[in-house]
Amino acid sequence: MAPDSSPEKEGVQDIDAPALEGMFTKELSTAFAALGCFNLAIFGATGAGKSTLVNAVFGRDVADTGVGEPVTRGVDYHRRDDGFLGIFDSEGFETGSAGDQILEGLRDVVEARRTSAIDQQIHAAWYVVRWSDRRFEDAQAAFVRRLAELGLPVIVVLTQVPSKDGQAHPHAVELSNFITGFGLPIRAGGAPVLTNALADDFTHAPAFGLDRLLDATYEVVPEAAQAALTAAQQLDMERKKKAVKAVINQAVTVASGIGAVPIPFTDAALLVPNQVTMIARISAAYGLPPQRSRTMAVAGSLILTGGATMAGRYVVTNLLKFIPGGAVAGSAISATVAASLTRAVGIAWAKVCEYALTLPEDQQQAFWSSGAVLEKFRSALSAG
User: Fold this and answer.
1) Are 311 and 17 contacting, i.e. CB atoms less than 8 angstroms apart?
2) Per-residue pLDDT tens over the stretch 264-277
3) How many C-beta neighbours within 10 Å does residue 357 have?
4) Looking at residue 325, what is its pLDDT?
5) Are 327 and 257 in contact (CB under 8 A)?
């Protein structure tokens, strides 16, 4: 007997919700773990603006939100609670014996970690100088050289630099040129990166140079640590979107293989495991907090199952517009249909994640644990 192809009958086959939630939880854990950790060493005198700089690039102060431990004299390691970002941070030092002690201890740390897993190594170092100090001494230059001798890719960063119409304060440029004259083995073309992490309402100085600092950091970070850096950084959404696009494209390829032998719409649940993996990897690529994996798993299972929410049925019956011609002969899922459905689900979930990132930290938990996720997903599907 021919299958009933009416919209009322075309739905994702009901899946045991607890089992699917467990599948989501496992895939989210795998996706987060696969990112690893980007480790940044940051040095500079007290008051140079290190914490403010980290906050501006990564969204929050790691020292306030992560677990810290001393790794050598004068240097602590803080790993942010989401696991994507680690900071090796000195409390602030003046040049001289304190700097020498830090370097000697750091040498042992670098050597011990050089053959460790990539997420245990130091991937980049920022040496931070407050431009308004208007000085850079021989001892500071020696410290930077010794950092480079340890094998660390060093970027010198001038902080709190005022700018106007995209041009840095001329005195800051003068200091930058002075530092460049030392011929230090630093990245970003051998010159400091000029930044201002926070806009100043009093002086009307805007945030400045952070994108260039992020670009310079990407240039020195090994490829194996770039996924973690992309998840951790909060400046460049386009980099996150590029990573997500790759995830979706891979899932679409898998879905095409599943649909190579056409299956009835009633067997659309065959596509779900691939879509679970895709959604988990998208969530990780955006750097969503893994401690919310439980609520994200519940949200994802609501979207991909049938049952009381009818979310699965909604996906199938409302995504025909993504299929050439708007209809499918015999109500079968072919490779084209499977790819189209999977791509649409991935794009819609990406929009949900992007929206979540715009919410204040204290509102994200409520969003993931409410029906707003499903409504946002449906809205994203309708928008195409």
Assistant:
1) no
2) 765 667 888 899 99
3) 14
4) 54
5) no
Compute the C-alpha angle 31/33/39, nearest 5°.
Answer: 125
Of 234, 285, 236, 228, residue with least CA distance to 40 = 228
Q: In this predicted model, which residue has the larger pLDDT, 50 or 324? A: 50
Hey, how many other C-beta atoms are within 10 angstroms of the C-beta on 115? 8
- pLDDT at position 12 is 42
Q: Which residue has the higher pLDDT, 44 or 331?
A: 44
Which of 338, 326, 343, 313 lies closest to 248 in space, CA to CA?
343
- Positive/negative CA dihedral, 142, 51, 124, 209: negative
Residue 1: pLDDT band (50, 70, 90) is very low
Q: Residue 167 has which token pair?
A: 């041009």
Q: Report which of 217, 133, 220, 129 is spatially closest to residue 180, judged by C-alpha positions.
A: 129
DSSP 96: T
pTM of the predicted structure, to 2 decimals: 0.85
Nearest to 303 by CA among 383, 382, 371: 371
Q: Which pLDDT score, from 0 to 100, does residue 295 have?
A: 86
Task: Concatenate the DSSP letters of all residues of 292-326 into one string.
Answer: GHHHHHHHHHHHH--GGG-HHHHHHHH-GGGSTTS
Q: Which own/partner contact pairs does 138-147 have at CB distance under 8 Å and 24+ positions apart?
A: 139/95, 139/96, 139/99, 140/95, 141/179, 141/182, 141/184, 142/95, 143/43, 143/95, 143/99, 143/103, 144/184, 144/185, 144/186, 145/184, 145/185, 146/103, 147/41, 147/43, 147/103, 147/106
How many CA atoms are closer than 13 Å to the CA of 382, on its beta-carbon side? Answer: 7
Q: Looking at residue 335, what is its pLDDT?
A: 83
pLDDT at 213 exceeding the cut of 80:
yes
**Mean pLDDT to the nearest integer, 213-219:** 97
Residue with token string 């260039």: 212
Per the CB < 8 A criterion, the answer to whether 119 and 36 are in contact is: yes
Token code pair at residue 384: 């195409």
CB contact at 8 A, 300 and 24:
yes
Cα separation, 163 vs 50, whole angstroms:
19
d(CA 383, CA 379): 6
Residue ranges in 185-285 assigned as alpha helix (H): 210-220, 223-232, 237-258, 272-285
Question: What tokens were used for 272?
Answer: 């779900």
pLDDT of res. 8? 37
Return the top range by mean pLDDT from 113-127, 226-240, 292-306.
226-240
Residues recorded for the chain: 384
Q: Is 66:79 a contact under the CB 8 Å cutoff?
A: yes
